[in-house]
Model the fold of this input.
Amino acid sequence: MRLLSLFSGIGGFDLAFEEIFGKDHEVYYSEIDKYAIQVYQKHFPRAIPLGDITKIDIDKLPHFDWIVGGSPCQDLSIAKKDRQGLDGSRSGLFWKFAEIIKKNKPKYFILENVNSMPKKAKQVITDTLGVEPVMINASLVSAQNRKRLFWCNFPVTQPEDRGILLKDILENGEAGRLKSYCIDANYYKGGSLKNYLDKKKRQVPLKQSECRLMVRVGQLNKGGQGDRVYSIEGKSVNLSANGGGRGAKTGLYAISAVGDLNNRKMSIKKDGKSYCLSANAASDTTPKVINIDNFIVRKLTPIECARLQCFPDDWCVGLSNTQQYKCYGNAVNIEVVKHIFSYFKT
Done:
């Protein structure tokens, strides 16, 4: 078969395709991020590069059995203020994808994008491609809450829930309690992270259904998006490629301290009443942690982000932590895409 991978990134669609259909296929790809290309070429050295999608001469392309891609979501995502939708310079690249589909007429295609896009943009994509999207949450097959829409010109079903929680993919550390707990809906408004770690106030047993959700247990400072703290007894927040702040790319998590986690590198002060970070905020270069008694609060490591997206641990080895976070945040979840491809293996 012949595959065209557009907006290929680090090769999420390509890896899933190989794992379902094998490696004996002709692959073309289009990507412009130099770090993503570095990773892609390491894993798929035989693939044929096409460069910038806007510069592809569609009439000179061979016919493809498959065309897949996740067009940029920055102008569609709810995370972006004043989003310009499909008129934006990045998300507007969907129109090039649609043009290639129209002219090349592949047997099968898959387009992936965020579930949080405006309804109008969703309908425009649906009308243009002529198929309804299917929303799949990667939480069914991984430890990450990540809702994505998939437009496919073949049937797509929901995968079975594998029951994977964040604690199952950590490099080190363990669950904060022997039993699963969460807090009520108003806990984080008046409670403190210290109370949670001390098993105090307004805590209730966590039901099995609630383990499939993100469980927020507290916050640091004013509780902005990058300072919200979650339990590893639930799912992680959605990985973000471009989030700013202490935990905006991966979320922050309360983890029982096990062994030497480089706590000596942390800049923490304790005034007897509160626990807080000093002005020396954590960076992407060294994933730093906050040590509170026998617990730590930290963001996820690049390896843990790889596991959330179901990539091998060493997929992006060689890149800086900053670039690894970005690459995994932009990627598709491997197990979700494998499930979609598996329709043809039944």
